[in-house]
Amino acid sequence: MQQVSDSSQSPGYDPAPTSSRGLIVDRIRSAGTLSRVELTQLTGLKAPSVTAVVRRLIDDGLVAETGRGASTSIGGKPRTLLQIRAAARYVVGVHLSEDHLTYVLVDYAGGVVARWRRDGPGDDSDPEQVVARVAIETGELIASSGVDPALVLGLGFVCPGPLIRNRGVTSAPPSMTRWVGFPIRSRLEERLGMPVLLENDATAAAAGTRLTTSHDVSVMAALFMSEGIGSGLRLNGNVYQGAHGNAGEVGHICVQIGGPRCWCGGTGCLEALAGPAAVVAKARAAGLDLGSHRHSGVAAFAAIARLALSGDSRAEAIIRDSAAWIALGAQTIANMYDVQLLVLTGPAFAVAGTIYLPILQERILSSVFGRSVGTKVVLDERGHDAAAIGAALMMLKSEHAISA
Ligand SMILES: [Zn+2]
């Protein structure tokens, strides 16, 4: 097998922890509380190793003993439970889109302690100005939360467009052409003075989607819609990123031969036919009043969704047409990956998901592959913030956060 030194070229389930310390922290964080015996069973590590690593984590202030659970054997000793010390460390997640900059501050247990949504930089944004702004606003977010800045380990940054994780975007939607080739990660690290992890928006959203206990799933996919359309796959708690960070680009599968040209270079792409920009263009052509929204981003799409939800039949027909196309993408994901659950997330689904959901669900159940296993479609309750939260959680699972 060929060895490559550039970690951006490593395919797989990054950032699945590889060290025993990382594995143990990750398991306790996922479960909430665990005993040493359960950690031995879940990680496959030997009991003395678990004991030694847990001791160091307690000494470092990252894990605490908390009460006792029932014994696992009749007459046995009650188990001492371990949990993450939430206030031990923090990470920041930032989601950049044309219309919004979303910030979250996440504690070491994975809980969101602060969130901000600010107006985005708009189209044709200057990456240097955006990086400078993100650095200032990140500092303000941390200061306003009262968290000691020294406890903030790093930042996960999410943006649209094909990317190479260690470098930046390799091409970009029309609104972000100046970002192509810009070294986002290194420039942010210079400005912030902390490690930065760069991630694709849909992949991060798959990591940030919250599943309720009623969703006992090991294989789920997130269908993400912001300015563009993408998807992320989550397997046993880890997201699949692909070789460079671009897995799941469902918005750029061709669903219409000879269809409209797409910014990606293809024609007939799902995104070009049914994404928010296409919906906005159709609404404008139909003469719908979109208020002050000049651009074709999520804000204008949201205005159409609100019209549709308030009973405007022309707006509803345009959104339902978009949903019929996007249902093809949803069905493709379900058929390709045999998922138990498809979660609709991202700012566009956060405003219009109730129209899309039944159409996507019906399409998936129309096929024997979805019908026989009952693949379920649900709306993410935190769709606006899922990408920012996911970026923070992925930073939390990285070696930067584990060695801290
Ligand atoms: Zn395309």
Task: Explain how this protein is built.
The chain folds into three domains: 7-84, Arc Repressor Mutant, subunit A (Orthogonal Bundle); 88-206 and 387-402, 2-Layer Sandwich (Nucleotidyltransferase, domain 5), CATH 3.30.420; 213-381, ATPase, nucleotide binding domain (Nucleotidyltransferase, domain 5, 2-Layer Sandwich). It is built from 14 helices and 15 strands. It has a five-stranded mixed beta sheet, sandwiched between helices. By secondary structure, it is α/β, with parallel strands linked by helices. Bound molecules: zinc ion. Zinc ion binds next to helix 7.
Report, as a whole number of angstroms, the end-to-end distance. 32 Å
CATH architecture of the largest domain: 2-Layer Sandwich
Unreliably modeled segments: 1-11
Number of helices: 14
Strand arrangement across the biggest beta sheet: 6-5-4-7-10
Outline, from the CA principal axes?
globular
Oligomer, anyone?
single chain
Main beta-sheet annotation? 5 strands, mixed
Number of strands: 15
Bound ligands, each once: zinc ion
Could you name the CATH topology of the largest domain? Nucleotidyltransferase, domain 5
CATH class of the largest domain: Alpha Beta
How many structural units, i.e. domains?
3
> In what range is the share of β-strand residues?
15-25%
* Rg for CA atoms: 22 Å
Task: Give a topology summary.
Elements: H1 20-31, E1 34-35, H2 36-43, H3 47-59, E2 63-69, E3 79-84, E4 90-96, E5 100-107, E6 112-119, H4 127-145, E7 152-159, E8 163-164, E9 168-169, H5 184-192, E10 196-200, H6 201-208, E11 219-225, E12 229-235, E13 238-240, H7 270-274, H8 276-285, H9 298-309, H10 313-337, E14 341-345, H11 347-365, H12 368-373, E15 376-379, H13 386-397, H14 399-402
Parallel strand pairs: 4-7, 7-10, 11-14, 14-15
Antiparallel strand pairs: 1-3, 2-3, 4-5, 5-6, 8-9, 11-12, 12-13
Helix pairs in contact: 1-3, 2-3, 4-5, 6-13, 8-9, 8-10, 9-10, 9-11, 10-11
The structure holds zinc ion (ZN).
InterPro entries: ATPase_NBD, ROK, ROK_cs, WH-like_DNA-bd_sf, WH_DNA-bd_sf
Protein name: NBD/HSP70 family sugar kinase
Family: Belongs to the ROK (NagC/XylR) family.
